[in-house]
Amino acid sequence: MFDHIAFGFCWWDIPALIALVGAIAFVVIRKRKLNNEEKNL
Questions:
Q1: C-alpha distances in angstroms, 3 versus 8, 9, 10, 29, 30?
Q2: Per-residue pLDDT tens digits of the chain, which is 41 residues long
């Protein structure tokens, strides 16, 4: 039972983790760009 849960955790969390990291990186990069544009004004 534990092995099955661990396998399911690994299999489903890898793409979910990639999507989550990508979304966080996208938001951080957008905020940095917006802050830089505001400073340039």
A1: 9, 10, 10, 38, 40
A2: 455 555 556 666 788 889 999 999 999 999 999 988 888 77
